[in-house]
């Protein structure tokens, strides 16, 4: 990071790495000193950081995470110096560590994330909660986890054909050092009809059965129509024959 001394110029340069002399010469040129060549300061005010000067202008080249005119101030990536504008509504801590806790560090990258019990990874970007475990705590349901600070909640959305057992209630369990509120799992098949038969069909299977039912219904209707048509024809023939018999008897 390069920051000119306050008495020389109000311009600030943030997070620029160690610079060679010719680049520093370009910086001095930006200060209005044409053709300047920087040399090491004879009397450095830069708190052990490299110092370069030209005439009355002196520049401290601050190694991160230090900043300020004389490199005595320490930058905080977790609070204000992460490069994110406050107008975005996003804090440095949440940008760097998600729902974890951001802690400033002395070594690169000059911050570390303490993820707690519900996340893991360098930036706490990987969920690690009951819903991501190898065993689904919701049974035959979709598991949804809502994390909080030191606590969390598991919600279960039952799959088709499944329901929560009668009398099952909410329980609280431990996950690491945190408490988790567990809603009851979906462990009982839904019973239907007088016989209380339990069955479960996926949406694809249900569509297949409805298709089969529709085909069978069409076949039955066609058969019934054919039988009815034949019956009507026979009835008409019988009525016509009876009329002829009556005419013959009258003659």
From TrEMBL:
Location of the EGF-like domain: 88-125
Membrane-spanning residues: 207-228
Disulphide bonds in the chain: 92-102, 115-124
Superkingdom of origin organism: Eukaryota
Keywords: Disulfide bond, EGF-like domain, Membrane, Transmembrane, Transmembrane helix
Protein name (database record): EGF-like domain-containing protein
Organism of provenance: Cyclospora cayetanensis
């Amino acid at each position: 990071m390069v920051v000119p001394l306050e008495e020389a110029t109000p311009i600030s340069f943030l997070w620029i790495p160690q610079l060679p002399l010719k680049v520093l010469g370009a910086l001095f040129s930006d200060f209005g000193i044409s053709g300047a060549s920087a040399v090491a300061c004879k009397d450095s005010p830069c708190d052990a950081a490299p110092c370069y000067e030209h005439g009355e202008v002196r520049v401290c080249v601050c190694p991160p995470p230090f900043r300020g005119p004389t490199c005595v101030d320490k930058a905080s990536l977790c609070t204000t110096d992460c490069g994110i504008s406050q107008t975005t509504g996003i804090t440095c801590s949440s940008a760097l560590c998600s729902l974890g806790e951001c802690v400033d560090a002395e070594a690169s990258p000059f911050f570390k994330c303490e993820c707690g019990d519900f996340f893991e990874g360098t930036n706490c970007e990987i969920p690690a909660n009951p819903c991501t475990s190898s065993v689904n705590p919701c049974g035959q349901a979709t598991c949804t986890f809502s994390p909080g600070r030191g606590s969390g909640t598991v919600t279960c959305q039952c799959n088709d054909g499944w329901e929560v057992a009668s009398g099952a209630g909410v329980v609280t369990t431990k996950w690491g050092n945190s408490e988790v509120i567990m809603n009851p799992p979906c462990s009982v098949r839904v019973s239907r009809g007088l016989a209380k038969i339990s069955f479960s069909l996926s949406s694809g299977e249900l569509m297949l059965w409805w298709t089969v039912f529709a085909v069978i219904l069409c076949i039955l209707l066609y058969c019934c129509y054919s039988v009815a048509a034949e019956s009507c024809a026979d009835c008409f023939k019988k009525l016509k024959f009876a009329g002829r018999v009556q005419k013959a008897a009258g003659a």
